[in-house]
Amino acid sequence: MDRRAFMGAVTGGLLVAPLVAEAQQAAKAARIAFISTTASRDSPTTAAFLQGLHDLGYIEGRNIEIEWRWGRGTTERFAEFAADVVRLKVDVIVAANATAGHAAQRATKTIPIVIPTMPEPVGDGFVETLGRPGRNITGLSTQRPELQGKRMQLLKEVVSHLVRMAVLADTSDTNYQESVKEAEAAGRALGLRMRVHEVRSPSMVEPAFSIMTKEAIDAVSLIGGTILYANRAQLADQALKSRLPMMCDTGDHVATGCLMSYGPSLKDLFRRAATYVDKILKGAKPGDLPVEQPTKFELVINLKTAKGLGLTIPPSLLARADQVIE
């Protein structure tokens, strides 16, 4: 080969190499689906999931593609969303809540599914055991039903005159009935008179608070994290207008105006969910990935809301709080 031909070959190789590298990188881009009740990626939980992916080296649009499916406050289109992303043959489906998880479960028995918030992983039929899920589903547990009694005890510390208690239950949550039973049992133990109001859509929130006001309810506790979470700002606004102290299950609710919350950090659960996606994309089977359970439960208090309700938070409770919003 003469010098001119040699230089041409080298130059051509240098030009082709980046194109080959780009093609290889594009070919390696994973494709996942994310089904949620919220309206956009601005949700704290969604942002935490994206941060978790970023920490593991995944950048949307570069080496991972995400099919976003937003419920925009309701769960009505979850079955449609699940069927749609299965047709797209995504590598992993992330179902932001148990309701989305059931929709995905009905749509596929082969595509891996990661659920960051499972109240009852075994009881809801998602996994065979926590240690060895055994199917195409894995994720994290919230252990939510068992926490109802603790939340009521904390609320009673703030609302000393608490006698008439309301529970606002999200019926789209797969195990809301179990949580309601737990709340009713806890209420009886505390000597409270309980009323349960079911919410099937965002439009039922305002009427529920109107009824609670007429019933002279002293405080309200939320049950369910699907529709209620997606509409948490509306809930906080209605509770304040109705002069009702409200106990929630996540700090995200408190950030939008709920009086207080006690439960696992949803942002932490969604951040951890990214590690499941990473392991699955690297070849792990979801049935072999144990379901994680929360080890830390956070007490979050909103002092601004307390002031608006004319309540004084006991110093002993403030000292135990993990976060105080002023």
Overview of this structure, please?
With 326 residues, this protein is α/β, with parallel strands linked by helices. It folds into 2 domains: 8-143 and 266-288, Response regulator (Rossmann fold, 3-Layer(aba) Sandwich), CATH 3.40.50; 145-265 and 297-325, Response regulator (Rossmann fold, 3-Layer(aba) Sandwich), CATH 3.40.50. Helices cover 43% and strands 20% of the residues. It is built from 13 helices and 12 strands. It has helices at 3-28, 44-55, 78-87, 98-107, 148-158, 176-189, 205-214, 227-230, 232-241, 251-255, 266-281, 303-308, 315-320, and strands spanning 30-36, 64-70, 92-95, 113-118, 137-141, 164-170, 193-199, 219-223, 246-248, 260-264, 297-302, 323-325. A 7-stranded mixed sheet has the order 7-6-8-9-10-11-12, with helices on both faces. Strands 2-1-3-4-5 form a 5-stranded parallel sheet. Helix 4 links the parallel strand 3 and strand 4. The longest helix has 26 residues, at 3-28. The N and C termini lie far apart (77 Å).
Can I get a quick summary?
With 326 residues, this protein is of the alpha/beta class. The protein contains 13 helices and twelve strands.
What is the fourth-level CATH superfamily of the largest domain? Response regulator
Radius of gyration: 24 Å
Percent strand equals: 15-25%
Binned, the helix content reads: 40-55%
Number of domains: 2
Basic shape = elongated
List unreliable stretches of 5+ residues. 16-26
- Please give the count of helices: 13
Write the layout of secondary structure elements.
Elements: H1 3-28, E1 30-36, H2 44-55, E2 64-70, H3 78-87, E3 92-95, H4 98-107, E4 113-118, E5 137-141, H5 148-158, E6 164-170, H6 176-189, E7 193-199, H7 205-214, E8 219-223, H8 227-230, H9 232-241, E9 246-248, H10 251-255, E10 260-264, H11 266-281, E11 297-302, H12 303-308, H13 315-320, E12 323-325
